Amino acid sequence: MAELLAASRRGDPTALDRLLPLLYAELHQIAERHMSGERPDHTLQPTALVHEAFLRMAGSGAGYNDRAHFLRAASRAMRHVLVDYARARNAAKRDDGLRVTLDEGLVARDDRVVDLLVLDDALDRLAEAEPRWARVVELRCFGGLDVPEVAAALDISVATAKRDWQFARAWLANVLRGGVPSFET
Amino acid sequence: MTGPWSPDSNPTSDAAKHLRRLRVLFDGAIELPESEREAWLARETSGDRALQVEVAALITSSGATDARLSPASTFAQFVRAWDAQLEGQRLGPYVVERLIGSGGMGAVFEAVRADDQYRKRVAIKVVRREVGSEISLTRFRRERQILASLSHPNVATLLDGGVTPDGRPFLVMEYVEGEPITRWCEARRTSVRERLQLFRQLCAAVAHAHKNLIVHYDIKPGNVLVTPDGAVKLLDFGIAKLVVADGAESDMPATHGDSRVFTPEYASPEQIRGDALSTASDVYSLGVVLFELLSGKRPQSGSGAADPALPRALRGELDQITLVALRREPERRYASADALSEDIRRYLDGFPVSARRDTARYRFAKFVSRNRSAVAAASVAAIAVLAGASVAVVQERAARFEQRRAQRVSSFLQGLLGASDVSWASATRIAKANPSVAEALDSAARRLPSELAGEPLIRASLHRTIGRALFFHERGDDAKTQLDSAYAIHVRTLGPDNSEVATDLHFLSYATTGVGADSTESLLHRAVDMMQRHRPDTIDDYVPALHDLAYFISSRARLAESESLFALVVRKETSRPTPRRALLAITDQSLGLNLWNEGKFDTAIVLMKRSVARFDSLPSADLGERASALETLASALASSGHAADALPYLLAAKRIVIQLYGPRTSLLVQLGVSLGDAYLGRGDTARADREARAAIALGDSLPPGNENARFQAEWTYARALRKQKRLAEAEAVARSQYALAEKSVKEVPYFWADASFMLGAILVDRGKLAEAEPFVLDSYRTARDKLGPQHVRAIRTLPLLVAIDDGLGRRAASDSLLALMPDTMRARVESVRPSPR
């Protein structure tokens, strides 16, 4: 993949063609990680998310220097896709009926639901203070990376990534709990 | 951004400064033992209480994990938000009111039928799809029809179905106001007897479906609702099968895999293993539900438990009944839902139950052995759907069902393989290579003769289906073998002159492509003629065959002939009770191409645009066709000097193709060519170069059979190089494309005229006039003789011939050529012509 990324940056169009399935697979893996906490009831296919994110990234025409760069961009794309849908959803009312058929395992329960719009806004505030903090959260929450992977993707030490995450997570938890009510509750 | 963080690196707002300050305090405080933090914080904040509280809160929060920040949570929310977009929208005659549930398989909405006076309430299930393995909408529709035929008071009726504007299939079901059976019983503390009576309603629903050859696959309390007045309704019949992506059919051993949809707690052992499924699998799930109804628990909640046992109070005959339903070996369970239900009735009525008798196992064994031949006949490798038929039904009504099963099997495979039933010419364009499907096909093909020896029509139908599928997978020879077998069987069993044989001839004509124009065309003629003798309006394949004949004739440049045939295609199709819109869209495209080649450019573009518009209004099963329509329109625009207009169509087409087939399909070779064309038309030679080169590289990596696409790619590249005056490279590529053309497209006049023209033109450019002459002459003669002397392909060679004759000192000969030219061309040629010595 590294070679292909480099070749595609040099303008080799076939490299990009060979790269696309790899990038797609990588995105898929990220999305699958999103599902890792879900019940194994159904094989949830995280395609919708991947698809959206992929189209966005493909549409942007940007090149990627390396896997880390790609992961950063992918996490960002995932964030934007999610937030856009939350925005679209914002006006809609919510109702958790379980009457007809029931993939109930996958319906988000209140205690696990975060208001993506509030989160998005909070991330912007974090980024204003220090962009890296927001990147860390993006990679963790939207990219599904663990802390060592985040460190690699941002080229920082694991200790720094860990501390960033610890701080950002604590701060976000307080923001999400406090002031702004979540639309899901 | 990647260096170590320093507080002063990013001077901004007060809020940002405050956050950075918080971070410093947080980092400092968290390092300290808890007992020292407060004092340290007080010191560091100079007594700022608010700040101290804030930092302390952060530290508290950092101790606990907030599940809301987990990826799973964000994703689940995404799924909900995505689904909820449909709220308030119309789907056909229905208005979606609210999202009821959302999950991996899809989302369920409550909706009302808006055009009804009494506003009928319905539930709509929108199926989620895996990109790259699209659910075949054709299959979806077929299965839907089968499901719609289920009519039973205990089955939630499937009312309708369709496709959302963004191409997701949806099902409209009777809206059931009710609760899952387990919860309903809990809430009302119903007696064991009442529970058993409810359960028997469920058995009746399942038995009814099994008699109609439909297996549920996902029986669980969530799918078994009880209405307030105590009626059981079983939901989602066959949905599990409907929503499984193609190529991952749950009852298909060759490709069993991740996409099986079932609920592990209720699934039979064979279902979990991914083995072939049958009605016995539903019997097992019924057993789990029964167990849970009686005990409040599910059996085997741990793993590897031995036979499940009911609580002591329920031991005895009920225990035996559940035990038999829950046997690990399918053949040892109750033979049917009816048998299970009957045993419960006997229990309720105080009769001894069959499960109690020691002979039970013996009787089952005997039953199975008695029915083994039926089972064997029904279990052709990739066709386990037959095993879904209750063996008793198969045996009892085998003869009567033969035709019907043939249809089902065939439609199963067709759906599985993504074969379009619209047109062969079009299907070839959307062929896709999927190794696991190809393997399944091979194995099915190998086993056909032995396993279905006694059922010729099923066999023929499968030969045909497999043959078609192999053809789509670009395996022409193997396809022909299969189609030949279908043809032979049909001739033997039905005689030589009927609609089945005609359909075989139609399909065979495609497997003979490349062998010779005559045989393809004569097969198509025979097919169409034969159909016309047998009430053509009743033959589904008639108009497609007609279209394909027209398309073939068009490709051989007999344009007047093909134009009138296309007119017939349109007339016949529009007079059908329900014209197939996809076929009309394809015909617009084919006819557009025809008109284009006749030089009727404006009308052609109108038709091509209409084709694109028609596809836009069609479901996404036709995405491949839509891409083709986009591409045709785009090339037409590009080559009529509207390159800028063409680009968006091409890019849209490319996106669809990648989405559907991934980046390694021959379709991208042709698209790359057209993109190169469009860029070239805009004067962007660098990009044209890149696109063409990528297309060629892709073409070279494809298996044999893609020479046509490769030829077009190289041809365009040669042209691009020529425009850029990179003549040495151009010559090399031109020779290569010429060699490809000689091998694969020599009988197609357009291609052959193009191939020889390009090589000749480049040789002229390089001053190799004598060498160029035979190629240019060949191109001129091919065009003149096959396409007509006024055809653009004939005319365009004249300046080259003039240059050759002039250069070789045959001034008089070139003078006579000038007379053949249109005025503008002559003027241009004369202006650059060296004056005679």
Find the CATH topology of the domain at 179-370 in chain B: Transferase(Phosphotransferase), domain 1
Q: What's the pLDDT, averaged over the residues of chain A?
A: 63
Q: What is the radius of gyration of chain A? A: 18 Å
Return Rg of chain B in Å: 35 Å
Average pLDDT figure of chain B = 74
Can you identify the CATH superfamily of the domain at 179-370 in chain B?
Transferase(Phosphotransferase) domain 1
Shape of chain A: globular
State the distance separating the first and last CA atoms of chain B.
74 Å
What are the segments of chain B in which pLDDT stays under 50 over at least 5 consecutive residues? 1-10, 130-134, 243-260, 301-306, 356-437
- The count of DSSP E runs of length 2 or more, i.e. the number of strands of chain A, is 0
The first-to-last residue Cα distance of chain A is 43 Å
Largest interface: A-B, 84 and 95 residues
Helix content of chain A: 55-70%
The biggest beta sheet of chain B reads: 6 strands, antiparallel
Overall CATH architecture of the domain at 179-370 in chain B:
Orthogonal Bundle
Strand order, largest beta sheet of chain B = 1-2-3-4-6-5
